Amino acid sequence: MQPHEGGERGLLPDAGPELAMPRRFVLAVAIALVAALLVPQVADAATSLNQVVENLRNWISGLMVAVGVCLLTVAGFRYVISSGDPGQIERAKSALKAALYGFALAALAPAIITVLQHIVG
């Protein structure tokens, strides 16, 4: 294998077919996750506004956790393949921070909704 311009082989925006399979796999997993989350649950049918808000809170929290896990996985992947490149390490750190913010927001979502419910009535 020939090294790419700039040194060692790494994840580049113009990466070729060697990354096509992982991208397809991630896309397939993301589509499957969204499809599974969007299937209506008869048992969760809301009969009041409070139930609607609670169901919405649960869905949003679940989606935020799923996105956080994906970002955490991307951050770890970027860090592992960075090969000591400071730019790639910074991208990995920023993805890790975004994942942690997502987890924190997902953890605080029930409290935020409860406060808003008490304010609204």
Structure description:
It is a single chain. This protein has 121 residues and is an all-alpha fold. It has a domain at 51-121. 71% of the residues lie in helices and 0% in strands. The mean pLDDT is 74.
Rg on CA atoms, Å = 20 Å
Largest β-sheet summary: none
Q: Roughly how many Å apart are the termini? A: 65 Å
Q: Please provide the ordered H/E string of secondary-structure elements.
A: HHH
Question: What structural category arises from helix and sheet content?
Answer: mainly alpha
What is the residue-averaged pLDDT?
74
**Uncertain parts:** none
Helix content: over 70%
Give the overall silhouette. Answer: elongated
Strand-residue fraction?
under 5%
Individual helix count? 3
Number of strands: 0
Topology:
Elements: H1 20-38, H2 49-80, H3 86-120
Helix pairs in contact: 2-3
Question: Short description, anyone?
Answer:
With 121 residues, the protein is mostly helical. The protein has helices at 20-38, 49-80, 86-120. Helix 2 runs antiparallel to helix 3 (86-120).
Fill in the keyword field for this structure.
3 helices; 121 residues; 71% helix; mainly alpha; 0% strand
